[in-house]
Amino acid sequence: MTHWIENVAIELAKRDTEEHVIASGTSISGSIHIGNSCDIFVANGIGKKLREMGKKAKTIWIADDHDPLRKVPYPLPESYDKYLGMPYSMIPCPDGCCANFVEHFEKPLLSVMDDYGIEMEAKSGFEMYKNGDYNDYIRTSLEKVDEIKEIFNQYRREPLADDWLPYNPICDECGRVNTTYAYDYDGDIIKYRCECGHEGEMDIKSGNGKLTWRVEWAARWKIFGTTCEPFGKDHAASGGSYDVSSVISEKIFDYPAPYPVPYEWITLDGEAMSKSHGVFFAPEEWLKIGPAESLHYYLFRSKPMKAKDFSPKMPFLDFIDQFDTVEKVFYDEVEAPSEKEGRKFKEIYEIVQMEPGSPLPFRPPFRFLVNAYQIAGDDLEKIFDILKRNSQLTKSFKDKEFGDLTETELAQYRERVDNVIYWLDTYAPNFVKFKVQEKSVPKLPLTPEQDQFLADLADLIENNDFTDATELHDAMYEILEAQGLKPQKGFQAIYKMILGQKQGPRAASFLLSLDKDFVVKRLRKEA
Fold this sequence. Notes:
The protein has 527 residues and is α/β, with parallel strands linked by helices. It has 21 helices and 13 strands.
């Protein structure tokens, strides 16, 4: 059993091609998120695997920055609707911080590509038109317009008009590209009319226009020699963009359609990601809560057409636990749930690992750090001590002291704690948050039974040196059973006395993480 990324690479390796070009593209219509940038990660993964197999391969990314703005993206003001229909490349930067609209939304993505180990050549659709890269393909499309119309009409309910041309000029009057209709040409001169009432002519060599999408996509494949391209499922629908562009590519441009890798959309907390509605989660945001490898893992752990829902809230803790387990199984730090799962974990981590052969990263359990940080504050050494006391360090680190960590391990540790801090501040629900009330005993009511439980628990902790949370947990239950007190009431008493609230983290582990003398005195209400 091989991973689906490897299966794609195996299929491509069978082809008689000097160099594989895995292409991806993104419409720069607003903030770029983990949904519409998915093809970049998939393309990179396939290219990386091909190179590991000894094949020559490169990945490219095309910014579709010459397309028309169809919706005002979040968080731009409604006043930006005056730019609707204009190419992204000709819209000003909303904050005046970048050269234009495109750079404003493109820059955050490009700034983290190195962090994700993405090796790609970035291209601009706008620049390609301005540089004349499409000129010959525009001419061919105009000359073969009847054949192109015939292909389009096979997939349409209503046939295209007799004077239709597969090209949209940018209107000289209103600046829009999706409201123009090209109806005639003479050499490189296109005649058009616009919904704004303007009629004009345009020279294709000016770059002030663009091919119809499905023709443009086919032309692009030949321009770059594309052999494989991941894309969203909308393009993969029967009779959709890929089907039509494949026929155009072969019949009009004499080029075989690339190997398709369609993928399912990613939802955010069950809601479709939308740049116009502000529902999205960006790759640069991911790095604030998790390591780069974890996003690769999220995207690659299941087949591309399987539905994926992401939540940076409480479900993220389950996800990052799973990622940590996969990573630790790969490095033989922990046992896999089964032999089959072990093979699966190692196979996928090999795909997502950014630096093959690199040593085990020091990433203590995220979920445990959520509590340890709230107890110790931003003190890495103190947190490390809590990790050791609670047996949270795997075999390669359990006998180490804080001062034994290498510079790389310390940086990884710092990054993980920073991820936890950001997650707590930004996505954690209130019930996860707590603060140890160190200065004074909270004045919350307790029953006589709860008071007795706390007193007995104080004696237990004072007279024993617990090093394992499970042992303390079992001993606590013995006291509860002996007193006939419900566990919920007992644990509530602990949280009330130490946190000033009715709930908190797992009690045994929590108590082991605190200073022993403080715990004993607080349970006795002495300090």
